[in-house]
Specification:
The protein is α+β, with helices and mostly antiparallel strands. It folds into two domains: about 60 residues, no CATH class; about 150 residues, Ribosomal Protein S5, domain 2 (2-Layer Sandwich). It has seven helices and eight strands. Strands 3, 4, 5, 6, 7 and 8 form a six-stranded antiparallel beta sheet that branches. One of its GO terms (cellular component) is cytoplasm. One of its GO terms (biological process) is GCN2-mediated signaling. It comes from Hucho hucho (huchen). Pfam families: Impact_N (PF01205).
């Protein structure tokens, strides 16, 4: 069957281009192929442009990490088999630790709020996190970054872990703060609600300042100035208060 017999009928392509009666009597197969190829090429280029723009926007805040501070790799901080058994057989009726809320920090429509709880087992860490996520506002935060340190007297070593929750490197920085302040048996969570304006490296400053403030508020370190100096000098604080 000849394709030319259909050339007298208007044929609409998805690109909105018509092959009409001007092509009467001619084979329209080639015209079909060319028009479809052009349409697909244009659509592909348009999609690539949109995707590249979105990727650039998402990556912008993740590009800058300070060179002068070594961040712990959270992947190496998971509970290891040597210490995990110390925390396995706790009673199912273990009490939920008290959770404290700190003052918010807001800049360029992004809001940061810290939360703190004394913890002595990984199970308590999970209980606190679950409780926080029952709050719809906290659950809706763009990021809930956390870090904890638990001191094991028997082993004289720490169980510690952190979570970025999508804010690349933030969990490691938060854990690093707990380490240099030498605080123990504590979980700190910092919620961030993104306001639509990129903060760049300032977001790390606000996350750690929020954590410092609540650690001072709850007596885990003596003053905000001391906490700031410890963070800046990358040295451990003398404060070893256990709660």
């Amino acid at each position: 069957m000849s394709l030319s017999r259909y050339a007298s009928t208007d044929i609409k392509l998805t690109s909105g281009v018509f092959l009409n009666r001007e092509n009467t009597g001619e084979s329209i197969l080639y015209l079909w192929v060319e028009k479809i190829r052009e349409f697909l090429l244009e659509k592909s280029q348009s999609t690539d442009t949109v995707e590249q723009t979105e990727v650039r926007n998402m990556a912008t805040e993740e590009e800058e990490v300070a060179d002068d501070v070594e961040m712990p790799d959270c992947r190496t901080l998971k509970l290891n088999t040597e210490n995990a058994h110390l925390f396995e057989n706790h009673s199912s009726d273990e009490e939920l630790p008290p959770i404290k809320l700190g003052e918010t920090i807001t800049e360029r429509r992004s809001t940061f709020q810290p939360h703190l709880a004394p913890v002595v087992t990984p199970r308590q860490v999970r209980m606190v996190l679950d409780k926080l996520y029952e709050n719809k506002k906290i659950a809706s935060a763009t990021h809930n970054i956390y870090a904890y340190r638990i001191y094991c007297e028997e082993k004289q070593s720490f169980l510690q872990d952190c979570e970025d929750d999508g804010e690349t490197a933030a969990g490691g920085r938060l854990l690093h703060l707990l380490q240099i302040l030498d605080v123990r048996n504590v979980l700190v969570v910092v919620s961030r609600w993104y306001g639509g304006i990129l903060l760049g490296p300032d977001r790390f400053k606000h996350i750690n300042n929020s954590a410092r403030n609540i650690l001072v508020q709850e007596g885990y370190t003596s003053s905000a100035d001391e906490a700031s100096k410890a963070g800046g000098k990358n040295k451990k604080s003398k404060s070893k208060k256990t709660k």
